[in-house]
Amino acid sequence: MAAPLPTFVAQHRADWDALEALLARQRDGSLTLPELRKLDSLYRRAASDLAHAQTFYPGTDAHRFLNQLCARAYGAIYQPPRERWAQVRAFFRRDFPRTLRRELRYVGASGALFILGLLLGALVVLWEPRGAELLVPSGVRQYVAQGRMWTDDILSVAPPDTVSSGIATNNLTVTILTFALGLFYGLGTMFVLVNNGVQIGAITALCAREGMAGRLLDFIAAHGPVELSIIVIAGGAGLMVGQALVDPGELPRGQALALRGREAVKLVLGCAPFLACIGVVEGYVSPGDLFPTWAKTALGLGLGGLFWAYLLRAGRADAEATEAPAVNAS
Q1: What pLDDT digit, counting tens, does each position of 121-156 carry?
Q2: How far apart are CA 297 and CA 317, in angstroms?
Q3: Confidence label for 52 from pLDDT (cuts 50, 70 and 90)
Q4: Are residues 46 and 101 in the same domain?
């Protein structure tokens, strides 16, 4: 014989409330693996309770509540797989540029560190020419001493597709390293940014001192604006990770790192396809004399302008459309 309805509800209400709480967290995407297993277990219990209610308490509030609760749980557990390409499109259309705009202060700090390195490297070599022996790689110094660019022989050593693939791999390695070293409380990222800036600044000053600034510009003009922008963005991601470790706020350090790390990873992943594309430019367009300097410069400025226009504008229309009803309602 079935127990009275109040007794039945009192016996099982705790499980139903727990299932409701897990469903709310599941919508936020914050469930852990043990909680997912618990969600499945509670759903099976609720389904059994629903069958019991349909038999002994049909048409009651408890029956209707369990029917709705099990429907929500079923939809959460057995939801159809999401369209991968739609997620990718949404990420690059909205999530990546919006994340960058939210974290623009870190990207700005990264850019400032890089520029500081550029100025230091250039000033050292311009002030004391022997500084190049410390800051410029020996292979580069040997080419400059001969009045040649170290990039002149790139296409004679390997075909453009091989060069492009190697450059893209190297750029991705530098980007990931710049980001990952943020785990050393941001100090590793800061060192990479300043060190890269110092080396590039020193090389630029050495070329200028030897009358080769034009040839250096000829090589870096096409790919430099986008490539350096991506390094700075990766540096911003690394600084985000470092800041979460140094100042986690009211959250435990591990939780703060997880939250900020997810946002930082979005910046690095978002840059990956642009790195591949700019690697093609660096492999096919930048070396050699096939394209004149003015064409390379126009291409580099154009790609850099489009890249930052995308980052600063993409997704804004969707955000404004979402906010408009709330503004009108008020």
Answers
A1: 999 999 988 888 899 988 889 988 888 888 776 655
A2: 31
A3: confident
A4: no
Q: Would you place residue 319 in the very low, low, confident or very high pLDDT band (cuts 50, 70, 90)?
A: low
- Does 185 have pLDDT greater than 90? yes
pLDDT at 26: 78
**pTM of the entire structure?**
0.71
Tell whether 35 and 146 lie within a shared domain: no
Residues 103 and 52 placed together within one structural domain of the fold: no
Final residue in a domain of this structure, among 77, 102, 121 = 77
Whether the CB-CB separation of 207 and 90 falls below 8 Å is answered with no
**Which tokens hold the place of 183?**
């785990």
Report whether 178 contacts 192 (CB < 8 A): yes
**Amino acid making up residue 107:** V
CA 3 to each of CA 52, 53, 69: distance values in angstroms, whole numbers, following the listed order: 11, 11, 21
Q: What is the mean pLDDT of the chain?
A: 87
Residue with tokens 């946002």: 263
Token digits of residue 74: 């079923």
Q: How many residues does the chain have?
A: 330
The burial of 326, by beta-carbon neighbours within 10 Å (0-12 exposed, 13-18 middle, 19 or more buried), is given as exposed
Which residue matches tokens 């939801």?
79
Q: For residues 271 and 107, is the Cβ–Cβ distance under 8 A?
A: no
In one letter, which amino acid is 190?
Answer: M
Same domain, 62 and 129: no
Same domain for 110 and 253, yes or no, is yes
Boundaries of domain holding 67: 5-77
